[in-house]
Design goal:
- The complex is a heterodimer of chains A (907) and B (188).
- By secondary structure, chain A is α+β, with helices and mostly antiparallel strands.
- In chain A, 53% of the residues lie in helices and 10% in strands.
- Chain A has 37 helices and 15 strands.
- In chain A, the strands form three sheets. Chain A has a six-stranded antiparallel sheet. In chain A, strands 10, 11, 12, 13, 14 and 15 form a six-stranded mixed sheet that branches.
- In chain A, helix 25 runs parallel beside helix 27.
- Chain B is mainly α and 188 residues long.
- In chain B, 78% of the residues lie in helices and 0% in strands.
- Chain B starts with a helix and ends with a helix.
- The chains are: A alpha+beta (907), B mainly alpha (188).
- At the A-B interface, helix 1 and helix 3 of A face helix 6, helix 7 and helix 9 of B.
Chain lengths: 907, 188
């Protein structure tokens, strides 16, 4: 193969793995015409991909056996009978995976083919009967010939020094049982799995193999969300024979026989819950493919209701029910399941095999139809790449049509039918808007997929401006959900929000922010109801790609975050690992009220005013009260307390303990949350624990290198540490991630100024002013630059503006006073000093703000006296003196160096 | 004798565009890694497996002055070290492997023997060969594997070293892994 061919192969490979397995054949067929060789290569690569040996995942020395956890029945923490490194034929045992109904399953390594396998070691007793063993080997060998994406492959059946074993494909995932019961996967997805199982079964049946022991415990769902059936043919080992000479048996006799046989074989008796009537009655000769169909029906029922259809108090009872009891109704337990499902289940569970489906293939087809009927999302999945186009879905009206013509309308009609779980419906709403986007990512014709998007703040079209937090909140939710997707670059919130309240031209936005698509919307709340309009626009052409309008009850506004995230990632065909999914769950909340409060909290926090911050604190606190495991709410709380010092002058002694408590709680809930660690780092900084602070910043950045705030705050930390070059690198990174954030730009300006690069500082200031001339940072920033340049008149003008806009915040007053002082306006300086003193007395200012003015007046003794006050109070923001220009004149004084040393900083 | 100054200097030179600086780094890093590996082995129980990334980390700490911890420099150091590590390990593995087969070429010291356990030896040799094959088809993909597998670099660090986007690294990694797995399954 040439490198060029290999490159083509690589491209095709990536295309193919994006497609669901059942569609791949079509894709490959398409290829066959052109290049048979390439197709062969692709197919073998696909097989390799599915086998996925973790072999090359880790460095040579620690290929951990624990990586693969095919979780089969784990009968407690029993010790494995075979220790590590035991050799069974060419397999070397690595670790015990679990105990199944038929022996232990080990993680082993095939030393010849050099791959990891699951090795099932059969108990001696089971294999004692030669006849049975022979039949089993025969069947297993046939099963070994089965190759299908939804069947766990059997590699070898053999014997080694008296021990019989089966080497099988190692499956990395969880059982269907877990999906149904522990993870509470939604029905649509479960049906997808079951359809796959049906397809796998079809293949086996076509080869003449009956599973005989189909149950949720031996169906695995891989990490990539494919079903795999395990243990084909094994059931032959434990066949229950009809005693010769007697026709028919009562179920109780069968039951006793089962138990006796099993316990003799030393096996753990599983439930009889999935046996077909013919199996239950020991009519071995009558067991065929249709018995599997019965078992399948039981599983289907369980997926829909969470319960087995024939469950008795003990085995005998269960068996009796299987043979005699009528099929229960799904709707008794689950009213919202599709009606067609009941029909399918009933036919699978017919007592007489002749009345069941005769082939599982028919069941698979019917399941597919049921899934399609369940909503638009399912449609997207079965649609292959050939059906894509950029047709825009016409804007929907809210009038109800007799029959749903679009997925949006389907959901609307569904709302009116369902009484409960309306939030799930709302998840559908946001899901749809995102699914619509997904549709265009993957199926858009003519050009590259959309790989970058800006979500602009939705317009608040309500009469009440106080509901800004709603429209802002929705945009933010969408930004947050989309940001999780690796293949998509999403513009940061503060950058996008700079467009708030402005007339937007999507194409201009696209150019400015360098994105391919823009998502915009409008929210109108009237009384009890909410109307949301969403538009997705191609930023290059200005064409509307997709639009949708929704009408909801106001109380339904808050989406179920976890479901959204999971559904979206599924739609966009991204695979989050189990750990990542859990992580998403932890960071968000399932409680709608808590979420709403959180949104409000962030909204007020972003204002960065004393009043706003106090309101924000209330919101976050309430959010945390509603959901004590809502990590982000605690981070929000901590952030408020941390900046409260700066913007409202509240003393450290009051804010720091609260900040600390909140952020530690956040870390406790989710230690992998970058935001929590960044806030923790800042907290340490305020507590003068500079070493720990640095560590935590690094950790935060490690956890999420794309979190701009971490880089921003880290940069300030580095300035404090005297590492200016590193600080500049970090602030640059923060700006890269969030180009239009005024707070970050202000930090950048200050850092450049510190370094002496006034031109760069000036440029930053100009940028901020362009964005929002009323933002006080802009003026404070500019003032500092003018001051450095000696243009005191202009500087004073800017500082006064900053003071006005900020509501006379003490840090701005300080800068003004200092400037008055150094420009000779003594009486004005004294006036600001007086104002600051009053604020200090009211606990609205830190002491160093006064020290700054004294420094400007040349009264060093006073300056240091005030600094000492802050030192004694262990003020959390005192470290700022290391970079605030108002203290430049003090730096040469030995008392400055002394102060720094006492704080634990290097002068 | 590796001088912390000269390594830092070389990294800085690289940072400023001197591509050859990295080549000069190789022998220095190689030596240092071998030294560290030997020291490790003296301490550990034989058969106790060694973390190659730990070795590289230690080499980095020793060779680069504390203050100069630029993100890119670190990534490039690790990039070179990954290559060095590969040479070292495969070297040992080959010796071990041939020794195992009975064709003992040179006597293996006890310490060297412990670095690569017998089970691993054959594997590593095969892996190295497969990787060389991959190199013929796609230099970049093989480099991704080398960096991640022998150097333990993260996706972002790999992206920095190779000067491509992290997404490209992930794609390369997925394909390379699959290809290698297939190649190794098929080999004897």
């Amino acid at each position: 193969m040439t490198p060029q061919q290999y490159e083509r192969l690589t491209e095709l490979f990536h295309d193919v793995i994006e497609i669901a397995p059942d569609q791949r054949a079509a894709f490959l067929n398409h290829l066959a015409d052109r290049d048979a060789e390439l197709r062969r290569e692709l197919e073998s690569l696909l097989t390799a991909h599915e086998q996925r040996a973790g072999y090359t995942e880790k460095p040579p020395d620690d290929i951990a056996a624990g990586m693969y956890l095919a979780q089969q029945d784990n009968g407690g923490a029993a010790a494995a009978s075979l220790p590590t490194n035991t050799r069974i034929d060419r397999y070397e045992i690595r670790s015990l995976l679990g105990k199944g109904g038929m022996g232990e399953v080990y993680l082993a390594e095939d030393t010849i083919l050099r791959r990891l396998v699951a090795l099932k070691v059969l108990p001696v007793v089971a294999t004692a009967n030669e006849d049975r063993m022979r039949r089993f080997v025969q069947e297993a060998t046939t099963a070994a010939g089965l190759s299908h994406p939804h069947i766990a492959q059997i590699f070898e059946v053999g014997e080694y020094e008296g021990t019989h074993f089966i080497a099988m494909e190692l499956v990395d995932g969880v059982t269907l049982r877990e999906k149904i019961h522990s993870e509470r996967t939604d029905l649509r997805k479960l049906l997808k799995y079951l359809q796959q199982v049906a397809e796998g079964l079809a293949k086996a049946h076509a080869a003449g193999i009956v599973h005989r022991d189909l149950k949720p415990d031996n169906i695995m769902i891989t990490r990539d969300d494919y079903a795999k059936i395990l243990d084909f043919g094994l059931a032959k080992l434990v066949e229950i024979e009809r005693s010769p000479g007697i026709g028919g048996q009562s179920s109780s006799e069968v039951g006793t026989r089962i138990m006796a046989q099993q316990s003799m074989a030393g096996m753990v008796m599983g439930t009889a819950g999935y046996m077909s009537p013919e199996q239950a009655q020991g009519k071995v000769k009558e067991i065929d493919q249709r018995s599997d169909i019965f078992s399948f029906g039981c599983i289907l029922f369980e997926a829909a209701t969470g319960q087995k259809p024939f469950e008795g108090e003990d085995i005998l009872d269960s068996l009796h029910k299987i043979v005699h009891a009528p099929t229960p109704q799904i709707k008794e337990t689950n009213a919202s399941a599709p009606i067609e499902l009941q029909r399918i289940v009933r036919r699978c569970l017919a007592k007489d095999p002749d009345e069941r489906y005769q082939t599982i293939k028919d069941v698979a087809l019917e399941l597919k139809e049921v899934r399609q009927g369940m909503g638009g999302a399912a449609e997207l999945e079965t649609a292959g790449p050939t059906s894509g186009s950029t047709e825009t879905l016409a804007r929907q009206t809210t009038e109800q049509s007799p029959k749903p013509t679009s997925s949006a309308e389907y959901i609307i009609t569904e709302i009116r039918r369902r009484k409960r779980d309306v939030t799930v419906v709302l998840a559908g709403l946001v899901l749809l808007s995102l699914a619509g986007i997904a549709y265009f990512f993957y199926f858009a014709r003519g050009g590259k997929a959309i790989d970058s998007i800006a979500v602009l703040p939705f317009v608040n079209a309500s009469a009440d401006p106080n509901t800004d937090y709603l429209s802002d909140g929705i945009s933010e939710t969408l930004i947050n959900s989309l940001t999780q997707l690796q293949q998509l670059r999403v513009v940061a919130r503060s950058t996008a929000f700079s467009y708030k309240g402005k007339q937007v031209d999507p194409q201009a936005v696209g150019r400015d922010l360098n994105v391919r698509a823009v998502l915009m919307g409008r929210v109108r709340q009237t009384g009890d109801s909410l109307n949301i309009q969403v538009d997705l626009v191609d930023a290059t052409t200005g064409a509307q790609l997709w639009g949708q309008e929704y009408d909801r009850k106001f109380s339904d506004i808050v989406a179920v975050k976890q479901d959204i995230a999971r559904e979206v990632t599924e739609k966009l065909r991204l695979r989050l690992s189990g750990a990542e999914q859990q992580q998403l769950a932890r960071r968000d909340t399932a409680n709608p009220e808590a979420y709403q409060l959180y949104l409000k909290g962030r909204y007020y926090w972003n204002k960065r005013t004393a009043k706003g911050l106090r309101t924000a604190i209330e919101q976050f606190q309430q959010a945390a009260d509603k959901d004590p495991n809502y990590a982000l709410a605690y981070v929000g709380l901590a952030d408020c307390y941390l900046v409260l010092e700066q913007y409202a002058g509240t003393p450290t002694s009051e804010t720091l303990p609260k900040a600390k408590a909140a952020v530690l709680r956040a870390c406790q809930i989710d230690d992998s949350l970058a935001e929590a660690h960044a806030s923790l780092a800042k907290t340490y900084g305020h507590a003068w624990q500079f070493e720990e602070s640095g560590k935590e910043y690094k950790r935060a950045i490690e956890l999420n290198p794309n979190y701009p705030t971490a880089h921003h705050w880290y940069s300030q930390y580095l300035v404090t540490m005297g590492r200016l070059d590193d600080a500049i690198a970090e602030i640059k990174r923060a700006q890269q991630l969030d180009p239009l954030s005024p707070v970050i730009s202000a930090a950048a300006a200050s850092t450049y100024r510190q370094k002496g690069d006034l031109d760069a500082a000036m440029e930053q200031c100009k940028g901020i002013i362009e964005l929002d001339p009323t933002f006080r940072f802009a003026h404070a920033c500019l003032g500092q630059v003018y001051q450095k340049q000696g243009r005191y008149g202009e500087a004073i003008g800017e500082f006064r503006e900053a003071v006005e806009v900020s509501g006379r915040a003490s840090e701005n007053l300080s800068a003004l006073g200092h400037c008055y002082a150094i420009s000779g306006k003594r009486s004005e300086a004294m006036a600001t000093l007086k104002e600051l003193e009053e604020k200090y007395a009211k606990r609205e200012s830190a002491a160093f703000n006064l020290a700054a003015v004294y420094a400007g007046l040349g009264e060093k003794d006073q300056a240091f006296a005030w600094l000492e006050k802050d030192f004694q109070a262990r003020s959390g923001t005192l470290f700022q003196i290391t970079f605030l220009p108002t203290f430049d004149t003090l730096r040469s004084d030995p008392r400055y160096a002394d102060l720094l040393l006492r704080m634990g900083l290097r002068p | 004798m590796s001088d912390a100054h000269s390594v830092t200097q070389l990294l800085e030179q690289w940072n400023h565009g001197d591509r050859e600086a990295l080549d000069k780094l190789m022998p220095l890093i190689y030596d240092e890694l071998r030294k560290i590996a030997k020291r490790y082995m003296g301490q550990q129980n034989p058969g106790h497996t060694l973390q190659t990334t730990a070795l590289i980390h230690e080499a980095y700490l020793r060779m680069v002055k504390q203050k100069e911890k630029h993100f890119q420099n670190r990534a490039h150091f690790f990039g070179v070290a990954a290559q060095a590590m590969r040479h070292i390990l495969v070297d040992y593995a080959r010796t071990r492997h041939t020794a195992k087969r009975g064709g003992g070429v040179r006597p293996v010291s006890l310490e060297e023997a412990a670095l690569v356990t017998p089970e691993r030896a054959g594997e590593l040799v095969a892996f190295d060969e497969a990787l060389k094959e991959l190199e013929q088809l796609s230099t970049r993909q093989s480099r991704v594997v080398e960096l991640r597998y022998f150097g333990g670099l993260t996706v972002d660090e790999t992206a920095t070293v190779l000067e491509v986007s992290p997404e490209t690294v992930m794609r390369d990694w997925t394909m390379a892994k699959t290809w290698l797995h297939r190649a190794l399954s098929q080999s004897e």
